[in-house]
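Sequence of Phosphatidylinositol-specific phospholipase C X domain-containing protein (Aquilegia coerulea).
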Amino acid sequence: MGAQVSKQKQKRKLLTTEKKSLSQLQQNSGLVFPGSDYHPPDRKNWMSGLDPTKICIHNIVWPGSHDSATNKIGIRFVSRPFAQCQSLSIYNQLVLGTRVLDIRIQEGRRVCHGILLTYNIDVVIKDIKKFLSETQSEIIILEIRTEFGHEDPPEFENYLVEQLGEYLIHHDEHVFQKTVAEVLPKRIICIWKPRKSPAPKAGGPLWSAGYLKDNWIDTDLPSTKFESNLKHLGEHPPVSSRKYFYRVENTATPQADNPVLCVKPVTGRIHGYAKLFIVQCFARAIADRLQIYSTDFIDGDFVDACVGLTHSRIEEKA
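Predicted 3D structure, token representation.
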């Protein structure tokens, strides 16, 4: 018991130090970067507003949501706070400007986060289709994976193709060099990551797991995660020469050995430093690597930061 109390005291001291470290870095660095003063007049149609003929797929800084379909996960006020990473529906996230969705499913085609379940994948598909029907030039990266500890839903690749076929941008590494206008009217890059089922075939309607990479660090320490994100991002080539998407997630994760187990207060330790991360990418000469940038509880400021940097790239100012 005494050892556990001592460990918790050390953890709290380390957390305090890491919070101060990020706060001091922000004070010293500021929040100004190329495009930081740009705000899209219509987040729902921000790709259209930037001119689809000028936006190259690889140059987009894609605002994404982590564990996207968890707005109604578990039981409200009981289990939900331990697994909820987003407060908005998929449709409302897309309207806000989110363009990368991270969907976890289990064998019964229900969305899940760990052992907790929520609505059927059909709800996600319906929201995506509604958004696409209301817009003309917005491209979505839809990542769907079988959650750890679960089995792949039967015939799921066929289901995705049946539901989204008319919108799917087929696997083709030349897509990275194309503009949004050149891939239209197709609208979705769908990356399917099964655990045991065969991976999607090259050239088919779905993309395999290797085309969306990340380096997930499971920690509730904000500066540790922040610096890890920068380190791993710097290990990848610039977006102009990559044939895959790379994601950075501005999140912190509750740990079993810490008394704070609810997602929102833990991820909140790093949430406000999203713009600082972009500033530090420029300071460390790796801003040309940033591509997919995701967060818990996505908001307008986060979207604007991504869109602003995209605008700056189009204007050749970044």
